């Protein structure tokens, strides 16, 4: 498919981004071309937009960023057999080698050669995006595009929470950004007996209430370690899900965890974090687990079934839907923390076309 498309481009190694006309991607034999219907803004995109230390060390401008989306297949490569033109799809954003030890032993999410859509290669903040057929995930025809576009980050929440069995356990979510908010719903649906939502943003703590958190911990008013211990017979929470990336919060999560507990860390701190390994982890028998991406494709199946059966409702997390052209407003909402999930609707879908 020839021609150009509108895309949000990280034009230079500096703050911000620009709407530009870019060539429509050319696909190879094992790839599909997808016309994007909706794309959502992730915290990683905010790192890139802000051009913080993490972005400076990882991203190479200029390129198209963005990685959460849904759309319709409009072209397939010669060797594609599972996807066809007209399919309503989303996509796994970690593109893996299928050759390394991790891939060959069923742990593709830990592939040593992973390339992330919208981070290492051109992404989906565009009217069209290409992905390997392997990465395509088919959606139910009736799924709203707003929900279809946020399955990838919902997968992060599912992977983080369900890495540890939480049925009958107390769970604390540190950081109530969109993924943290979705993690609350996942933990409740999975049998957690107490879910703590920890943040300082009143707007997002309000959303945490809507998502079913049992205890709201405003770190601007309360000591999260003391409050969590007080409500868990002075033992601490069994499972910690660290979503904030803030050094103080990470240390608080470790302190508020019960002896022998699990600490699952999804967040991306901008700089190295100092922790007391001896006293916070070793002597207390904690297990600290880094979480990256989603299990391919176990997590996608879990996400799909949780949504299909209405076991969880993540609609309250989607607080803003904006035209694609208003991306700067969307990033400002994300940067200020005055939103849940921001979804950008593409021009063609705004016009009611496929």
UniProtKB/TrEMBL annotation:
EC number of the protein: 1.1.1.103
Keywords, ordered alphabetically: Cytoplasm, Metal-binding, NAD, Oxidoreductase, Zinc
InterPro entries found in the cross-reference section: ADH-like_C, ADH-like_N, ADH_Zn_CS, ER, GroES-like_sf, L-Threonine_3-DHase, NAD(P)-bd_dom_sf, Zn_alcohol_dh
GO BP field: L-threonine catabolic process
Cofactor: Zn(2+)
One Gene Ontology MF term: zinc ion binding
Domain Enoyl reductase (ER): 16-344
Classification via PANTHER family: L-THREONINE 3-DEHYDROGENASE
Protein family according to the UniProt entry: Belongs to the zinc-containing alcohol dehydrogenase family.
Name the UniProt record assigns to this protein: L-threonine 3-dehydrogenase
């Amino acid at each position: 498919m020839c021609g150009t498309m509108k895309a949000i481009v990280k034009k230079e190694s500096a703050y911000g981004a620009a709407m530009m006309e870019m060539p429509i991607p050319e696909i190879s034999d094992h790839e599909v071309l997808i016309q994007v219907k909706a794309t959502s803004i992730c915290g990683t995109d905010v790192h890139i937009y802000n051009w913080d230390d993490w972005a400076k060390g990882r991203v190479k401008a200029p390129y198209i960023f963005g990685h959460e989306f849904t759309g319709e297949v409009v072209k397939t490569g010669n060797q594609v057999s599972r996807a066809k033109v007209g399919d309503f799809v989303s996509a796994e954003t970690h593109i893996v080698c299928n050759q390394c030890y991790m891939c060959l032993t069923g742990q593709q999410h830990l592939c040593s050669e992973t390339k992330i859509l919208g981070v290492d290669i051109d992404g989906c903040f565009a009217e069209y995006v290409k992905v390997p057929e392997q990465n395509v995930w088919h959606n139910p025809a009736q799924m709203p595009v707003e929900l279809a576009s946020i399955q990838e980050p919902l997968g992060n929440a599912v992977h983080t929470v369900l890495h540890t069995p939480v049925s009958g356990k107390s769970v604390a979510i540190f950081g109530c950004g969109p993924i943290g908010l979705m993690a609350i719903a996942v933990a409740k649906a999975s049998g957690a007996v107490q879910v703590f939502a920890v943040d300082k943003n009143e707007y997002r703590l309000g959303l945490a209430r809507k998502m079913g958190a049992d205890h709201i911990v405003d770190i601007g008013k309360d000591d999260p370690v003391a409050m969590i211990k007080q409500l868990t017979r002075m033992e601490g929470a069994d499972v910690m899900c660290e979503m904030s990336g803030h050094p103080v919060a990470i240390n608080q999560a470790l302190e508020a965890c019960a002896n022998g507990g699990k600490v699952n860390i999804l967040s991306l701190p901008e700089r190295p974090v100092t922790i007391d390994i001896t006293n916070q982890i070793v002597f207390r028998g904690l297990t600290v687990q880094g979480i990256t991406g989603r299990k391919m494709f176990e997590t996608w199946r879990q996400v799909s079934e949780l949504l299909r059966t209405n076991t969880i409702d993540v609609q309250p997390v989607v607080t803003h839907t904006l035209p694609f052209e208003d991306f700067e407003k969307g990033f400002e909402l994300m940067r200020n923390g005055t939103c849940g999930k921001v979804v950008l609707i593409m021009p063609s879908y705004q016009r009611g076309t496929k």
